[in-house]
């Protein structure tokens, strides 16, 4: 009987990835924070009288932060595995017999 038993994979809750909605919420919050920083940089570059080196720094932040924010918002979770595409089993027909249409 011992030889017939197969070992089962044990899954723990701590091994689970965050849910899709939690990942989306995290990315939305980060995006909104970065866009808020960009808005502040834009306001500081236009309204506040500061020396030109600081003004150029604020302008650069207003220009490059949207790109960085979009790339970060489109990034999947770091723990998410890459998408996999499962191929059908080699013995499986293209259309199962019980799903054949009339006339085929």
SSE layout:
Layout: H1 20-46, H2 52-74
Helix pairs in contact: 1-2
Quick overview of this protein structure:
It contains 2 helices and no strands. The chain is mainly α. The two termini are 47 Å apart.
Which structural class should the secondary elements be placed in? mainly alpha
Q: Low-confidence spans: pLDDT under 50, at least 5 residues?
A: none
Shape: elongated
Radius of gyration: 26 Å
Strand content: under 5%
User: What is the N-to-C succession of helices and strands?
Assistant: HH
Q: Count of DSSP E strands?
A: 0
Largest sheet: none
Percent of residues in helices comes to: 40-55%
Mean pLDDT: 78
Q: CA-to-CA gap between the ends?
A: 47 Å
Number of helices: 2
Oligomer: single chain
Organism: Nonomuraea dietziae
Transmembrane segments: 30-48, 54-73
Keywords: Membrane, Transmembrane, Transmembrane helix
Region (Disordered): 77-104
Can you describe what's shown?
With 104 residues, the protein is mainly alpha-helical. It has a domain at 21-75. Helix content is 48%, strand content 0%. It has two helices and no strands. The chain has helices spanning 20-46, 52-74. Helix 1 packs antiparallel against helix 2 (52-74). The model has no long low-confidence stretch (mean pLDDT 78). The chain crosses the membrane at residues 30-48, 54-73. InterPro entries: DUF3099. Pfam families: DUF3099. It comes from Nonomuraea dietziae. This is DUF3099 domain-containing protein.
């Amino acid at each position: 009987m011992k030889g017939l038993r197969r070992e089962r994979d044990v899954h723990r809750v701590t091994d689970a990835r965050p849910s899709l909605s939690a990942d989306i919420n995290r990315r939305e919050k980060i995006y909104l924070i970065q866009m808020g920083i960009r808005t502040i940089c834009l306001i500081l570059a236009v309204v506040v009288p500061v020396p030109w080196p600081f003004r150029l720094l604020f302008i650069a932040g207003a220009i490059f932060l949207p790109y960085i924010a979009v790339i970060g918002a489109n990034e999947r979770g770091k723990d998410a595995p890459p998408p996999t595409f499962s191929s059908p089993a080699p013995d499986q027909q293209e259309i199962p017999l019980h799903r054949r249409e009339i006339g085929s």
